[in-house]
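User: Predict the full complex structure for these chains.
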Amino acid sequence: GAGVSQSPSNKVTEKGKDVELRCDPISGHTALYWYRQSLGQGLEFLIYFQGNSAPDKSGLPSDRFSAERTGGSVSTLTIQRTQQEDSAVYLCASSLVGGRETQYFGPGTRLLVL
Amino acid sequence: GDSVTQMEGPVTLSEEAFLTINCTYTATGYPSLFWYVQYPGEGLQLLLKATKADDKGSNKGFEATYRKETTSFHLEKGSVQVSDSAVYFCALPGSSNTGKLIFGQGTTLQVKP
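Assistant: Here is the predicted structure of the two-chain assembly.
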């Protein structure tokens, strides 16, 4: 595709519900990253995929957060039992390969937990 | 560990003023350095980058020079426009081989006509 796409663009959910956020990276990019942007914490790394495997999950804030990637392409970030502190913009980025290549970001999913 | 420090914002300038946004970093070795920009209501966009010491990245009239002596990558523009109003983030890849980006806290720039 022309760029990284994410869906939904906005999500409002009730505390305790599960949510799934989707990322479609640039075609041919093997590396995929999830970040979170929140008012109090700035931009934080969550997880890195190389192909379908996730060698770095160090940024996931709790075991309520998980992510998968299938076919070396689309990735889904799942947040279980959402809490109000999960409210943030979730950004996905991809790059040609992992390491120090330029990352290209999607528009983000704005999550609001009521 | 690796880190990035940006000057506090917001920065408010009049149109055609000179802009400097300071960025300093702590890192192992000599990583690539990036400036990303986030316009109101939009996602992060790569503004410019430099891959080695003394390199100068430039784009849209913005420039930044990779200075290893001062561990800095300050963003400059000679004459800002209202359309440059945005949040600017300095970033570098973390020390692991994953390339996960470490961002500064962001600097909000507001340019007034």
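Residues 10 and 108 of chain B are 5 Å apart (CA to CA).
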